[in-house]
Amino acid sequence: MNTSMKILLALTCAAALSCSKQSATADLQPITQEKKSAVAATVTWETVIDNSSFASYSAFEAAWNYLYPWGSDHNGTARMYGSTSDHNHIYLNAGVLTLKAARINWNEGNSSSDPYLPIHYHSGAVHAKAQVLVNDQFPDWEVEGDFQAPSVAGSWPAFWLTGVNSWPPESDILEFKGNSTNWQNTFRTWQDVSSILTNVSSPGSWHTYRAWITKVSATDVNIHYYIDGVWKGMHTANFVGKPMYIIINLQMEGASGSNGPSGDTYYNAKNIYVGRNRVS
For residue 144, what are the β-bridge partners? Predict the structure, then answer.
């Protein structure tokens, strides 16, 4: 996406956000050339992660880390594996990142993370070395990628943002729970969550999932969620000044609500892009 389009998107969100939580039809307000020129004089669009980070292992390891930021375990029944020398569950091919979940047939104990479920799978997770931090200097962010997501019962793939220093914040850009419904969630507290549910035709085909995040007050951001370029809704949350990790993972069972498959499960990603506006 070129710089002029980024500026147009920033202005589009600014127009909508001036009306606080009003309908997102404000996103479609016409932008005058004068407004575009004014913004261009004060805003510089920066690419944080470009869509070549899966082109090679050296490019991947320059932009991404293996596992979750906190280690190998989380809230499902899959334990994550992957390292520079271990590509059994995380590997690259022709610009595509593949995460593979394989069922194990031995007792490996329980996950070390709440709710401490028994480990049934070995799988893969990665997180970006860059973090999303909305503040006065960087008031607008775009996070997007193309995914082939599994929807078999018991699978739980995700592409999401979560707090570095605390939880929440959390923004789920892609989350499937064993069927074809994508969840785009914004957690303000563990009890205060807004969700957008979208039935995706053939999640295992390539689709684009995107979040546009923009600062609207001293404490709040608006998060606009998209699938395949179609706007799905907006949430407001107090995420200003709170750094967030960018994570891609293939978790299993857990919130999917059912037993997982006996065979291997695959989750593919490509063209991951992260960009931000720098205000001078």
Answer: 210, 273
Which 8-state DSSP code applies to residue 117? P
pLDDT of residue 280: 87
Domain spans of the chain, in order of start: 45-279
Mean per-residue pLDDT over the chain, rounded:
89
For the stretch 31-52, pLDDT in tens is 344 444 444 547 899 999 999 9
- Cα 32 to Cα 117: distance, rounded to the nearest angstrom: 55
Residue whose structure tokens are 């047939």 = 105
Long-range contacts of 187-196 (CB under 8 A, 24+ apart): 187/237, 188/237, 188/238, 194/235, 196/225, 196/232, 196/233, 196/235
What does 218-238 look like in DSSP terms, one character per residue? SS-EEEEEEETTEEEEEEEE-
Q: Which CATH class is domain 45-279?
A: mainly beta
Q: Which residues pair with 186 in a beta bridge?
A: 171, 194
- CB atoms inside a 10 Å sphere around CB 114: 9
CA distance 16 to 40: 19
Residues 76 and 28: their CA atoms lie apart, in Å, by 40
The residue type found at 181 is T
Single out the residue of 245, 219, 220, 255 nearest to residue 234, CA to CA.
Answer: 220
Residue 245 tokens read as: 């990790």
The partner residues of 86 in beta bridges, in order of sequence, read 83
Average pLDDT for residues 124-145, to the nearest whole number? 98
In the annotation, is 61 catalytic?
A: no
170 tagged catalytic: yes
Q: Which of 142, 144, 170, 253 is catalytic?
A: 170
Tokens of 96: 């595509």
Please, which residues have CB within 8 angstroms of residue 226's CB and are 6 or more apart in sequence?
A: 144, 208, 209, 210, 211, 212, 232
